[in-house]
Amino acid sequence: MSRIGPESLVRELDSAGLLPAGFGLLLCEVLRDRFTSDLVWVDGKPLSKREHPTAWWTAVYSNTSVVTQYDDGFTSWPEVGDRASCSLSMPSVVVGMLALLDVQPGHCVMEIGAGSGFNTALLSKLVGRDGEVVSLEVDPDLAGTARQNLRHSGYKTTEVQVFTKDGAHGLPNWGQPFDRVISTAAVQLGHVPYTWVEQTQPGGVIVTPVRAALTSGPLVRFVVNNDGTATGRMASMGAAFMELRSQRVAWADDELIDESAGDVSQRSTEHDPWLMFGQFAPRWALAVALPSCEYDLREREYLRLMDPVSGSWAVVRPDDRGGCVVRQYGVRRLWDDAEAAFGWWLDRGKPAGADWEWTITPDSQTIRLASE
């Protein structure tokens, strides 16, 4: 049996085609275990290094995300909380994002979300001695942990600094524009902080996950233009990330749906909800059209749409004729809007995620098909 460690992680990523060129050595230089606490959660279950050392080491050095905090620290290990609030992302996602960022020696980089400090350490290695990394962490406890992990791993404050600040505001008084900005927390669709653009020099790159209520996962790479705007395209890879804490949206309550309400409308549809919502490309088009709408899909049983902003909902179930029955309630007819957005997507040749283009200006943010 091969030894568990950074080399085995590199082999795993390489054999799966998930290791960008040049990142194998980086993962061997920055040891993930030094940034992983002894008490963690993996796959929704508590894991102790002392009680289950082999499982702990296996999780640390495999392509697995490791949760280090639930509910902003208000849920203590081994209890499993409602919302993961800090984790070490899957290594394949970490190196994939860094490859998108294209960090060069000597760069000045701002990171949003220090977490454990692991990604911060990787950035420090990439910029080298002539570069600089500043990381903004809104949670004081996490910021302290990141500083401690970095210090114990030999990183000096002259090389990397962790500030306890809300990353949504950036670091306006830093004194020089950043070459690169990377966020390890997702921003809501249409709400990329303009401060990130403002604090990045022309030609600089911003990489951030973007989410909407219907879907999470798109990674968007922005390039800052000379006129103070930024243009972005979705990367081929994606992953689910926790939101910026200042942009969190309350989840819809299942009790929002009351099918016994007297003014519920009902109709039939020939559209397949599993085709519409079960794949990323059409679901992303629907997410753009229905930014506050959430969904619950159980294949061949039901689709539930809920919009906590308007209080509207829709339930779609298969009937015995090969179609579906739609029941809707509220000021928004969510299924009607979803069908319209799906038709728009079909009419344009089923565009993929990479076909969308973002534009950020000081006053607005737009997303559209690049071909239009």
From TrEMBL:
SUPFAM superfamilies, sorted: S-adenosyl-L-methionine-dependent methyltransferases (SSF53335)
InterPro entries recorded: PCMT, SAM-dependent_MTases_sf
CDD domains given in the database record: AdoMet_MTases
GO term, biological process aspect, one: methylation
GO cellular component term of the entry, any: cytoplasm
A GO term, aspect molecular function: protein-L-isoaspartate (D-aspartate) O-methyltransferase activity
EC numbers for this chain: 2.1.1.77
Classification via Pfam families: PCMT
Predominant cellular place of this UniProt entry's protein: cytoplasm
Subcellular location: Cytoplasm
Keywords of the record: Cytoplasm, Methyltransferase, S-adenosyl-L-methionine, Transferase
Family: Belongs to the methyltransferase superfamily. L-isoaspartyl/D-aspartyl protein methyltransferase family.
PANTHER family reported in the protein's UniProt record: PROTEIN-L-ISOASPARTATE O-METHYLTRANSFERASE, PROTEIN-L-ISOASPARTATE(D-ASPARTATE) O-METHYLTRANSFERASE
Protein name: Protein-L-isoaspartate O-methyltransferase
